[in-house]
Amino acid sequence: MSGKILKKADAFYDVYERKPGADKLTTHYCPGCGHGTLHKIIAEAIDDFGIKDRTIIISPVGCSVFAYYYFDCGNVQSAHGRAPAVATGLKRANPESIVISYQGDGDIAAIGGNNILQAANRGENITVIFVNNAIYGMTGGQMAPTTLLGQKTMTTPRGRNPHNEGYPLRLSELLSTLESPVYIERVALTDAKNVLKARKAVRKAIKCQIENKGFSMVEALSPCPSGWRATPVEARKWIEEKMMPYFKLGVYKDNTKGKEPYIPPKEEFTTSEIEKIIGIAATKGKEEVRIEPPAARYRNPAIKIAGFGGQGVLLLGEALAEGGMRAGYHVTWLPSYGPEMRGGTANCQVIISDDPIGSPLVSAPDVLIAMNRPSLDRFEPDVKKGGLIIFNSSLIDRRPQRADVEVIAIPATEIADNLGNTRVANMVVLGSYIAKTGILTKEAVISTFPIFIKRRDLIPLNEEAVQKGIDWVEG
Length: 475
Ligand SMILES: Cc1ncc(C[n+]2csc(CCOP(=O)(O)OP(=O)(O)O)c2C)c(N)n1
Ligand code: SF4
Ligand SMILES: [Mg+2]
What we know:
Layout: H1 34-49, E1 55-59, E2 74-77, H2 83-93, E3 98-104, H3 105-111, H4 113-122, E4 127-132, H5 162-165, H6 171-175, E5 183-188, H7 192-210, E6 216-221, H8 232-246, E7 250-254, H9 271-278, H10 286-289, E8 302-308, H11 313-326, E9 330-336, E10 345-353, E11 367-370, H12 373-379, E12 388-392, E13 406-410, H13 412-419, H14 425-437, H15 442-446, H16 449-452, H17 459-474
Helix pairs in contact: 1-7, 3-4, 13-14, 13-17, 14-17
This protein binds thiamine diphosphate, iron/sulfur cluster and magnesium ion.
Iron/sulfur cluster binds next to loops.
């Protein structure tokens, strides 16, 4: 048999560039795995409905976590079990999008059990594809909530015992008792006939969402030859003989016919309404605080700010982002709260952009603000060519090694100490950044201080620190 692919759905990439390694043409799934079959069914449905440009597939943890290698549409990875919550946010924020939550049995019925229950109960207009292979495939074959009684797994070596592990969970039956779900069906990826039924069910579930009818879920009994220590043929037989008697195939709920479409009303808030709701003072208009656009090389910066926990790096980022927002830019601020906060490096990522921002992640910053040596060591290599590194030369005993970036060395801690408070070193650096790039005015930045600086008596000192940073660059 030739290895040539005769026709691949448009919703798949031709070459899987995102997949690591030399083989960019085949998937990472084991031979005989049901995920591949389901992917194909979904991709063909996306093609046929012509929804590629508005589809978002969410892949949480499990063997299908890498679905984004293959689907040429919107992809979001979520934390284990949290796909229904992420789907809810995506769909509510973008009602035009088609959101598919693709989840394994461990993901949906164990760690994410409550997530799916609540999303189904709210009747979110999303499509859930639930891949039930009765095992944790990705982690090497541990018991899942759907593992059958007597089934041997890594964690039930003598077989699942109902007195110890309870009974296998029938999620389709459970969810179909709720009022809101519109369509729930269980299918099986065994022979051609059942695969065709699965195809029909997946299409129906997606159509349900396209027609704004509400929550739909297709549960697919899916072979996991590796987890079950079986050949692909044995695995399909096992579904028929062992899974199907317990997990009966069929439609558990179908209100698609009677159900009226529901399109949520668009609620738009004015800036002043939002300001009122979140309790901030009226912001100045764009014209008042935005100065001449900065030089092209400093526009739309993705900024990484890093230092010791306690050096105020998060605050520095907040002041930049809030100031940017007040100046009429699109902004994001993403803090990194890790164990680092207790003494190592803490960092946050800020984007200030003329255009809407797709993702707040900054992996290759245009600007690195390094407040201590570990931060410079860690993030210097990531800075884009032609970027800018500002470092606190009071605490960092080396210059950046990069020759392809601009560098500002500012003794921020020393300047802050001279002002009488080490902690305002962050504001000194902030001043140097805005002076160097012209991205924001001093006024835009200091107008944010009443929000972030709880001790009002310290605001003048922080303003002074910003000015010292500006003077350092301009003087
Ligand atoms: C918060 C968290 N807990 C546990 C894990 C470990 N983990 C990775 S995949 C997985 C189970 C996946 O099983 P399933 O959802 O059935 O997907 P499958 O691989 O079988 O398709 C677990 C428990 C994790 N990655 N994150
Ligand atoms: S371990 Fe199972 S679910 Fe995972 S890729 Fe292999 S066959 Fe598929
Ligand atoms: Mg599984």
